[in-house]
Design brief:
Length: about 425
């Protein structure tokens, strides 16, 4: 069971969480719980790091930001004990949750499930702070924002759990962010592949890595709400959204429990920024010169368009990078200006990426053109396009984000009212 930041924000809410956990354990289950820091706490800690030292050392950043989860794991253990449950917290270094790669974006390498399994078998509820692990040289690490989801899936895999329930502040995965589109519909099931794609293009309900890990390890994941009353449908009856394999999805469709749509969901991401380099020489090696320094600096480039060459063998190259990396990317490219040989460097962070995702696209043509037409009808200009087998993404003006998501939700027949009709 994993509980997110909103679910853990304050004593009252932690008590509600403790009750949900107590019930699950009382039903004869061995339970491990992974918790997030209280909502807003990690942001607050990140700000302290920035104030202390703008060019902070990621290893010390990890020491600071991992503390939010230490607090909530201890508080949940205390609250469970107050309800008469046996509970014990297990910090990242105690389990241990071994991680590899960089501080602040560590990846889970392995979790020793044995000690945890024994303690659970002895009737103790294990409470584990999400987001944190320990590096090869014994220092605290964190797994990137939203990382508690990945902690939960990794723990579930380590103890061979029957299920990993991700409790959050919405009651499942919706066709789009229900806070933006009131008519968004809750999905009964979504495939790993689609969820992975949705998460990676901005549906923050699950961290992308957690979905990749669940898919690889075959962990059954359910997304459901912790904001429920005593009369709520029990988690074992699967009231939330199940993340399933393609085969399971086919079975659900066959049984008539799920209807296959060409488009499963729509996501948006306002965290990218656009860079345009004008009049780049249109010759072999040019593009390599642009992207090599960015790759070396671990800056992920997402969308790329190289325009049709102009006269005089020149072309414009447009691409996007995470907004947080824009300043660094700009500095690197200005440094390499002579080598690359561009004329102007133009940046724009007031952009948004809107993506439609669905495995139905594999077999159904016309999904992209529906998108372009629906946006055109509302006068929304498309600045860049990328596609994959099950996704189409477009770049638009940030101010038009909400409108675009709503328009597309209607265009693909996803609105809740459509279902009733
Ligand atoms: P937690 O703190 O529990 O990890 P998050 O804030 O990380 O919660 O994720 C839950 C939020 O994800 C929801 O409040 C919702 O606004 C947002 N969200 C975005 N896209 C979707 C979607 N397709 N379905 C459900 N929630 C979504
Ligand atoms: N507390 C961390 C964050 O806010 C991890 C998590 O909540 O998943 O990013
Ligand atoms: Mg989250």
């Amino acid at each position: 069971m994993k509980f997110g930041g909103t679910s853990m924000a304050g004593t009252e809410r932690i008590r509600r969480v403790a009750n949900i956990v107590r019930k699950q354990a009382a039903g004869g289950n061995e339970v491990a719980v992974v918790v997030s820091a209280m909502a807003g706490e990690t942001d607050r800690l990140v700000n302290f790091c920035r104030e202390a030292n703008a060019l902070y050392d990621p290893a010390e950043y990890d020491v600071v930001v991992a503390s939010g989860e230490q607090v909530t794991s201890g508080l949940l253990a205390l609250t469970l004990q107050s309800l008469g449950c046996k509970a014990r917290s297990w910090l990242g270094w105690q389990l241990p949750v071994r991680t590899i790669e960089a501080h602040a974006k560590a990846r889970v390498d392995s979790i020793d499930g044995e000690a945890l399994g024994k303690s659970m078998a002895a009737g103790e509820i294990a409470v584990i702070p999400g987001f944190q692990g320990v590096s090869e040289d014994g220092r605290i690490t964190t797994m990137g924002r939203g990382g508690s989801d990945t902690s939960a899936v990794a723990v579930a895999a380590a103890v061979n759990a029957d299920r990993c329930d991700i409790y959050t502040d919405v009651d499942g995965v919706y066709t789009t962010d229900p806070r933006i589109v009131a008519k968004a519909r809750k999905l009964k099931a979504v495939t790993y592949e689609e969820m992975l794609e949705l998460a990676s293009v901005g549906a923050k309900v699950l961290q992308t890595r957690s979905v990749g890990l669940a898919m690889k390890e075959g962990v059954r994941v359910q997304v459901l709400s912790s904001f429920v009353g005593d009369d709520a449908v029990p988690a074992d009856e699967l009231p939330g959204t199940m993340i399933v394999s393609e085969e399971e999805m086919d079975e659900l469709v066959e049984k008539g429990e799920v209807e296959r749509q060409h488009v499963t969901g729509i996501a948006h991401d306002k965290n990218e920024a656009k860079i345009i380099l004008t009049r780049v020489p249109d010759k072999p090696g040019s593009v390599a010169h642009i992207f090599e320094p960015l790759a070396q600096a671990s800056i992920n480039v997402d969308m790329i368009i190289q325009n049709v060459g102009r006269d005089k063998g020149e072309t414009d190259v447009t691409f996007t990078v995470p907004q947080a990396d824009l300043a660094r990317a700009q500095a690197l490219l200005e440094d390499k200006r002579d080598e690359i040989g561009y004329n102007r460097l133009i940046t724009d962070s007031k952009i948004a990426k809107i993506s439609v995702v669905g495995v139905g696209m594999k077999s159904h043509a016309g999904v992209a053109s529906t998108m372009f037409q629906a946006l055109a009808d509302r006068g929304i200009n498309i600045q860049a396009i990328t596609t994959s087998e099950i996704k189409v993404s477009v770049l638009i003006d940030e101010d038009e984000t909400e409108l675009a998501v709503r328009v597309l939700h209607t265009a693909y027949g996803l609105d809740a009212a459509d279902e009733a009709a």
